[in-house]
Structures are given as C-alpha cells and as structure tokens.
Specification:
Rossmann fold; 2 domains; seven-stranded mixed sheet; 7 strands; binds S-adenosyl-L-homocysteine
C-alpha cells in the first residue's frame, strides 16, 4: 500500500483548498496541475463515493505518478496529459462541457525540482532543460545560447524582476562565446560571479530570479495562465468555484486582475470568494518552507442573468 510518505511534494494550503471548493458527491472537478496527486487525493476523498475528478498535467511523469497514487479510486479519476491552456478542448474530448470546481496549483512540483535531470534547480548539477512537457522543443539551454544579449536582458528583467539583468546577460554572452552554457551549475556560478557581492541578498540565491525567468519563458507560463483562467471560467457551472494558488508576484497579478475584471462585467460573471489572498500560517511554512510564497485566490461563477423577456420559469 502506498502512503503519502512515498511522495515528495507536500500539497500547499490543502485544507483551505478543500474547504473553498465546497466539494460534494456527484460533482465533477478538475485539478489542472495534478502533479503528484496530493490535492487530487484530498478532492477524491472529499467527494466519495461518486464524485468525478479530471487530473491534468503537462508533465507525463507527473501523470504517471499521479496515476499510481490515485488508482484505488478507479473510474472516479481520469488523468490527461496537456497544458491547462487547452482545458476546454481537453474536457470536451472526454465528453464534458461543464464542471463544478477547478484547482490550479501553479509552478513546479518538488518532484520536478529534486530531479536534477530536469534542470529546474540551481542547487544540483544537471542539463539546463526546465521543460515541464518534455515534448516541447525549447529548453532553457536553447534560450541561453541563442537569444541576443538585449533580449536575454529583457527576459531576466521582465520575468525574473532581476535588477542585475544587464550584468547577467553580459556574463552569459561572454561565457557562451567560449563554450555553450549547458549545465545548471555552470549558469548558477556565472550568475554568482556577475552579481556584485553587495547586491546579493542573503535570503535568496543570486540565480533564483534568472532561473524563474527562464522557466517562465520555456514553459510559456504566463500565457498558459492568462488563457487557462479564461478557459476555466468558461467551463464552470453556475455556483462552481475556481481556486488558484500562485507562487510569485507575476502570477498573482494575472490572477488578481483577471478575477477583478470578471467580477465587474455587466452582469458579473464571477463573485470573489477571497477578498484578500489566503496564505499559509507559520506552522505550514515551518513544515513546508516552499509554501511561504503561496497565495490562494478563489472565485465563484455567477448564474447568467435571464435574457430579456425570459420569465426564468421554463
Ligand atoms: N497540487 C499538486 C502539485 C502541483 S505542482 C500536488 O499536490 O501534488 C505543479 C504541477 O503543475 C507540475 O506538475 C507542473 O508540471 C504542472 N503544470 C504547471 N503548469 C501547467 C500547465 N499550464 N498545464 C498543465 N500542468 C501544468
């Protein structure tokens, strides 16, 4: 029997997500970022005996691992490989047009971070890859070795909010003139050398922001998020809820603005459930330091207003 200890990713804000989704049996739910299946497991438990869960991930390895973990739930769980940008299409291929609740738990999983071969971590040596979906053509190494210096700088500035973007871009170009930048530690070291010591915060590694920026571009994360949110809202049943957990300010800004805009349409499409984002308490952060930057925001789909002349009683 497998237990939760067999899995390295600790689901963030799990109880809060379960509570906010207001799960019920018979319902159809979607976990757009199934990862290692931690949240999915909790959703399935809370919707027994007959709630149905679609679990989606861009990473085939995640889909496989989640499949193992969740197999005791049998036909109540269906796992799909793909990006949540295509949520509507993925669901309609399963004969589903509308669902009762959706979760997006953004970013990378601990499984991805700890596997050095995936190239997400600046603390372990591995190929400079960073693709969540290994079938997509562009790796971080491709970007680092081919983008013009100016564009590299812009990427680091825009998606990493990196104040040393100019110096780092320069250092990358210098290095790649000698040899391709192909390893994670090679990149992390050259960044450390490029950033002045006085500018290196004590709290985070100087390569943190560059790695974030490259990961966002490799996986087109902000585009996936913007389109994915719209798709999610469009497949929600009236009263259905969407929960999104973001891990950095660029993501959170998109979530916040999208939710706000859709609560202000006439009539409003959404109702805001979380006036302020829900964040982990000190105990969760102590047990799972990765949770410290998490922000959960949630909305509920509003019933469409009846068309003029429609009495509302069919
Ligand atoms: N909630 C999960 C962990 C999710 S980690 C658990 O409890 O185990 C985030 C996962 O989302 C990763 O596996 C990543 O591959 C996936 N992911 C990120 N962006 C995605 C997207 N646009 N479409 C589908 N999956 C995505």
């Amino acid at each position: 029997m497998t237990t939760d200890e067999n899995y390295c990713h600790i689901p963030v804000l799990k109880d809060e997500v379960i509570q906010t989704l207001r799960l019920r049996p018979h319902g159809i739910y979607v976990d757009c970022t199934v990862g290692e299946g931690g949240h999915a497991e909790a959703i399935l438990n809370a919707t027994a005996p007959d709630g149905l869960l679609f679990g989606i991930d861009r990473d085939e390895e995640a889909v496989r691992r989640a499949g193992e973990r969740l197999k005791r739930h049998g036909s109540r769980v269906r796992l799909l490989h793909g990006g949540f940008k295509n949520l509507g299409t993925l669901l309609s291929a399963q004969g589903v047009r509308a669902v009762d609740g959706i979760l997006m738990d953004l970013g990378v999983s601990t499984l991805q971070l700890t596997d050095s071969e995936r190239g997400f971590s600046f603390q372990k040596d591995g190929p400079l890859d960073m693709r969540m979906d290994r079938r997509s053509p562009v790796t971080a190494a491709v970007l680092v070795n081919s983008l013009p210096e100016r564009q590299l700088m812009q990427v680091l500035f825009e998606y990493g909010e990196e104040r040393w973007s100019r110096r780092i871009a320069r250092a990358i170009v210098d290095e790649r003139q000698k040899a391709p930048v192909s390893r994670t530690l090679q990149l992390a070291d050259l960044i450390r050398r490029a950033v002045p010591r006085s500018g290196q915060g004590r709290r985070i590694h100087p390569a943190t922001r560059t790695f974030q920026a490259l990961r966002i571009v490799v996986n087109q994360e902000l585009d996936q998020l913007g389109v994915g949110l719209a798709e999610a809202v469009s497949v929600l049943n009236d009263g259905g809820r969407l929960c999104v957990i973001s891990f950095h300010s660029l993501e959170d800004r998109i979530v916040k603005r999208t939710f706000k805009a859709l609560t202000q349409t006439e009539p409003p499409q959404l109702r805001l459930i979380t006036k302020k984002p829900v964040v982990p308490g000190p105990e969760e952060i102590r047990v799972n330091p990765r949770s410290r930057s998490a922000k959960l925001r949630a909305v509920e789909r509003m019933a469409a207003a009846p068309a003029p002349g429609d009495s509302g009683t069919a």
